[in-house]
Predict the 3D structure of the following.
Amino acid sequence: MKIADTLPKEYKKAFKDADIRGVYPTQINEVTTYRTARAFVQHFGLKKVIVARDMRVSSPALRNAFVQGVTDAGAEAIDIGMVGTPAMYYASGTMKAHGVVITASHNPKEYNGLKLVLPGAVPVTNASGLKAILKLVERGTFAASKKKGRVTKTDVFPAYKKYVAGKVKVKSDRKVRVVMDAGNGMATTFKSVLTDTLPVTTKKLFFKLDGSFPNRDSNPTLKKNQKAIVAELKTGKYGFGVSFDGDVDRVAFFDEKGWYINSAVIGAMLAKYALQKKKGLPFVYTVFTSKIYEETIKQYGGKAVRARVGHAFIKEQMRKHDAFFGCEHSAHFYFKDNFYADSGILAFLQVLAAYTEAAKEGQTFSEMIAEFGVYHQTEEILVKVPDKKKALEKVAAKYGKMKSCTVKKFDGVTVTFKDYWFVVKQSVTEDALKFVVEAPEKELAEAKKKELHVFLKSM
């Protein structure tokens, strides 16, 4: 395959703090991918690289470009095929090798990207090599290789399925009826795990791989992408529902009535479940995670560890504190015994295990999580601003003058009043601020959301 020599005009927009992701082909294309592979091998002096991809329409072409970059640099490309991101993490962890998965995760169909990892599924970030890789990509000239590398194929999925199935013991005398929305993404590859090894009867929605996302976009936390699963749950035939993103590192949960459950409520329930067995365990949270998660950790004798929003920063704190579990508002769940990485499938299994125990006591899913549903958190709102740094400073200045609230600066600005609180932080990818508001009462949270939205739009 011959690779052109021109980077896309907007290539810099694709390079984030902890991955490379953008619109194909205007922000990321085969040239970006080929050069990134060459730079990855050269910067780290690699002899082998694990290569995986998802089912997106542009993923085969980007996979080919990355493999050619690896082999042109003289390294071995270990092709593990079309798998979800957690499977690549597993391969990196068990093989102790650098790797990449070609995916745009929860982003819409026109996006694609590269998630690079160090051995053990440790994310490559700006601090650990991504900035240096970008410089090499921009330069476009690389050290000559004495000989061309080779491509080998390895099927890790059979071993990975056993690994996943062995992580959680789910015991139930009766089948649990669950609605599963794969969204035409990589969750479809777990069909046998979900049906053959678990006490579940499933209603499968969109279990056909299709990178054009014909039924819904990849992000399962957005209301517009939840219509099918909510409608099915409202028939009253099921215990609960789950919906996955395109690369299976996110999972959204729904109760038996079709209500979407805030990820922090799920995290709080799992934290209580774990801490009842062992006190003192560390758990990671972020400024956007609902307060119920942090409060539950402390209530049941755990240690709450704060991290910046974003998978790389959460994993960093997970490792630093040897944390048992991490929860992010965006439906990411992180596990110590999964190389400190996120996995939608493992989160589903943990929740299924907890639910089967609750069901034995006659509880429904909504009753199982009822004690954690004490706050209403608004959806994440994005507001375009001329200068996001100055805009955030204005937020801190305005509320810092008020005696009726406290202001804390960490990964944005957290403002706490007696009866509600909110967080405003900079967007990593856009000239914008994003925020959430939380309160015990939905009406108050929504009213304060509108007020804050008006203020931010006035900047």
